[in-house]
Design goal:
466 residues; mainly beta; Immunoglobulin-like; 47% strand
């Protein structure tokens, strides 16, 4: 202690800490005097902790403030320069009572995008709620009674809750953290079931519920909800004749981006009344379930009229399917393969067989499909020793055949003289070096008709002598 000050003597150079405890006058002396003076020494980091206050009293320092309260202690930060503090005991300042929460009457406006999928209408909305008075801390939005999958996101939202279903439908309550903000923006998503065969679809607008305690004559104005229902393939939606229509160029910016590639039905609902859309599914033009890219046949006829026929079909299809084939009057199916795997077709009737085609296989040189190959025998009248004709026909299928190729061979001792039927001689027949008893036939773009010919023939020696 020297000249009214305390000093700390340390040994060496560095950083040191010191704790100084002072015994101050009792509370009565404080109240009767003009306070207690205290002049702390400046330090880079220093604090003053004060405890033991009389009941109902707190320490006040002129020109300083309470840095923080640590339990029963008051903690003051000591400035980095020398100063004289004047300290007093005083009653703690009264905390300002928070104003009671006042309900807000909201006007609700929203832009909504609707998508239909799997029997549900899924809505995504950007909503704006505005009020002229109140605390702006909560909002209750009325939703359709059958609503599902509700979600709410937005700035400053403390929590949201889907309330139990009541007589007037479902409601979602949104609470915010900060009061006195009367312009709120949030995202609200929901779904409703929608029957695909219904002739009307209801668009129910969002509605802000009127809270209790709001004067009867107070009005927030009419809500405006803008719906964009994006198109559904094959479904025609239309507005009732009295409802006004809007164009995409009139939409807000974010909605225009939602319909930039697909124009949707645009409906603006002012007020609380729902709008019913007229709904109609348009008829579809069905495409072929499958086609045959190539059908290749080889028929060999011998003198007694016996025939051996080999048929190979390349069937193009997208999914597993049943395929029916109507055969001529045959003796026996000798072999049958589907994708080179032996199989036994189902016999539907005397001449009808059915194949169960599996999922199509990918092929390098053609579209995905299935290859069906069968070989059967049949019998016709014996060939005339001199000349005559023989009728030959192939299996019938309802599938569209892009190209049919048929190689027909008769015994070496005969030669063909003419062919009549619904197939024609191949254009490459004259250029071919094949034997003269082999004839190439072809047909393009065939459906629902049985390929058949009458082949006229004569003994080869007759042709030479003539």
């Amino acid at each position: 202690w020297r000249e009214g000050s305390y000093g700390l003597l340390v040994n060496g150079i560095g950083t040191f800490s010191a704790e100084l405890s002072l015994s101050l006058p009792n509370g009565a002396a404080w109240e009767k005097s003009v306070g207690v003076g205290f002049s702390p020494m400046p330090a880079a980091v220093a604090e003053l902790r004060v405890t033991g206050f009389p009941p109902g009293k707190t320490l006040q320092i002129v020109g300083e403030f309470l840095a923080r309260k640590d339990g029963e202690e008051q903690v003051f930060q000591i400035p980095g320069e020398k100063a004289v503090w004047r300290m007093f005991l005083d009653e703690p300042p009264m905390e300002m009572a928070e104003e009671p929460v006042q309900p807000s009457l909201w006007a609700l406006h929203a832009q909504v995008v609707g998508d239909y999928a799997d029997g549900r209408l899924k809505f995504r909305s950007q909503a704006q709620a505005q009020a002229d008075s109140g605390s702006g801390l909560s909002l209750v939005v009325n939703l359709p009674a059958n609503v599902a999958s509700v979600s709410v996101t937005g700035e400053d939202i403390e929590e949201w809750k889907l309330l139990p279903r009541g007589p007037d439908g479902r409601k979602v309550r949104i609470d915010w953290k900060t009061r006195d903000t009367l312009d709120r923006v949030f995202l609200l998503n929901w779904e409703v079931p929608q029957s695909p065969i219904a002739t009307t679809w209801e668009l129910a607008p969002l509605r802000a519920e009127r809270p209790e305690g709001v004067p009867d004559d107070a009005s927030a104005g009419e809500s405006r909800i803008l719906f964009v229902v994006r198109p559904v393939d094959g479904l025609e939606l239309s507005l009732p004749a009295a409802a006004p229509a809007m164009e995409a160029r009139q939409l807000p910016g974010w909605l225009r981006t939602e319909v930039v590639d697909r124009d949707g039905l645009i409906v603006e609902i002012v007020g609380e009344a729902p709008v019913n859309l007229d709904s109609k599914w348009l008829p579809r033009l069905e495409t072929a379930q499958a086609t045959i890219s190539t059908a290749t046949f080889e028929t060999r006829v011998v003198g007694d009229g016996s025939m051996l026929v080999t048929a190979e079909y390349s069937v193009r299809h997208g999914t597993p399917m049943d395929w029916m084939l109507e055969l001529p009057k045959i003796d026996q199916i000798l072999t049958c393969e589907v994708n080179r795997q032996a199989t036994s077709p189902i016999l539907r009737s005397e001449n009808q067989i059915e194949f169960r085609l599996p999922a199509p296989q990918a092929r390098e040189d053609a579209a995905p499909g299935t290859t069906v190959k069968l070989c059967y025998s049949m019998k016709s009248e014996s060939l005339d020793p001199v000349s005559g004709k023989i009728a030959v026909e192939l299996p019938l299928t309802e599938l569209f055949i892009h190209r049919l190729d048929w190689a027909l061979t008769i015994p070496d001792s005969f030669e063909p003289t003419a062919v009549e039927g619904n197939v024609q001689i191949s254009t490459g027949q004259s250029k071919s070096g094949d034997a003269s008893n082999l004839i190439h036939l072809e047909k393009e773009l065939c459906r629902g008709e049985k390929p058949a010919v009458e082949l006229f023939y004569q003994r080869r020696e007759l042709g030479v002598s003539n």
